[in-house]
Amino acid sequence: MPRLLLAHCVFLIAAIAVAACGGDDDAHPASATPATAAPTSTPAVAFALISTAFADGGAIPAAFTCDGASTSPPLSWAGIPAGAKGLILIVEDPDAPGGTFDHWTVYAIAAEAGGFPASTSPRPGGLPGQATEGLNGAGKIGYLGPCPPAGQQHRYRFSLLAVDAALALPPGRPKAAVLDATAGHTLATATLTGTYRRP
To answer: Taking residues 175-183, what's their average pLDDT?
Structure first.
């Protein structure tokens, strides 16, 4: 009888030991799965307007003013926002004695146009991108170079508006009419400011 009891005890201890060692999942953690790298995306190019003739905040060379040939400066842009169906370019002098003076209004510029070369008005063959020129502050169509009073320095703000509506206006419309026709349709605006002081 003692021998049988001893056998039962040995069997019971062995069973407990197997159960304790064989069923513990935490003792053998699964190998960690390497994290999948997040896909990299190309950052969007910011909507920007630049000129090779002057830097933002810099002086506009005399060639592009009334003291030169009054040639419009070369301009280029990038980062046109998605959904844009056209562009509008407005050049203003906010420091003019009688209030903001309009130096150039261009509209119906194709969204795929990349810029304008330097040119004098009138432009043979017109502007790239099927662009249409409006009236300046002197009541004429085309670009009018900076011409502040002698000894004064003025700022000249070049604004490029991306709009989500096609604009079919005839040539020679003033800035106010162009902005009215696209009210509520501006997706983004890029600006470039130059300065000019007359001798």
So the answer is: 94
